[in-house]
Amino acid sequence: MTRIYAVANQKGGVGKTTTCVNLAASLVATKKRVLLVDLDPQGNATMGSGVDKSELDLTVYDVLTRQASASECLQVSESGQYHLLPANGDLTAAEVEMLSLDGKERLLWDGLQTIKNDFDYIIIDCPPSLNMLTVNALTACDGVIIPMQCEYYALEGLSALMNTIGRIQELLNPNLKIEGLLRTMYDPRNSLTNDVSAQLSQHFGDRLYRTCIPRNVRLAEAPSYGQPVLSYDRQSKGAIAYLALAGEMIRRIENEQKAAATAAS
Q1: What is the pTM of this model?
Q2: How many CA atoms lie within 13 A of 76 on its CB side?
Q3: 166 secondary structure, DSSP code
Q4: Phi/psi of residue 224, each to 5°?
Q5: Strand 121-125 and strand 3-7: pairing?
Q6: Residue 99: helix, strand or coil by DSSP?
Q7: What does each C-alpha distance from 200 to 12, 151, 210 come to in angstroms?
Q8: Which of 123, 105, 107 is nearest to 23 (CA)?
Q9: Which tens digit of pLDDT belongs to each residue from 119-154?
Q10: Which residues, in sequence order, are CB contacts of 78 under 8 Å at separation 6+?
């Protein structure tokens, strides 16, 4: 069964796109079929996957405005070996155009139906705001992965996102859940990092991923070469951390499936 995850946080600079690109590549390394959906008009996930956003004829914008099918818009990341539904600046206009369309909150969900069974995982990179694009991502997905830095303002922003997720659950996607919280740019030497990390663990329990993504220069360098860190420097701490995250995600799903099978019997 295809798993669809939105990587969301309205706070910018927390590692959403870095997580999307590197998690997609890491899942591919475990022999999974992966689609990365770039839903941010900045197109950073597209560029970070080695695809030039300025040379695209069709993007996720065309899917959302019902001008093209998702299969017509697919690209392949040569460096990451996953499929990509790319984005560029055209997506800025999509939000306005979507408002006049029927079922505007479900446009992405509709667009993915024809291709979702071709993949084991679909990862959606959300823009850094709680707008109609993010609503579409949360309506289309099974779970939300929330990357965040362990700092005071991150906790404040988290409450707004939690409220939005609650509203989407009530109105549009009752099966939506928080898949996990991911600590990014993690520095265990910082006392505030440890304090915030302890609060997250207390509040979210096993929803907090054990894997932490460290501050790592290779993670910062890789996008400028259009590569996930796994192909840029496989031995780096960043690459190892995202491989560990992919493994932890897969084990979680397997454990949930075993528990469900046991309960059913």
Answers
A1: 0.95
A2: 4
A3: H
A4: -70, -15
A5: parallel
A6: coil
A7: 19, 11, 11
A8: 123
A9: 999 999 999 988 999 999 999 999 999 999 888 777
A10: 50
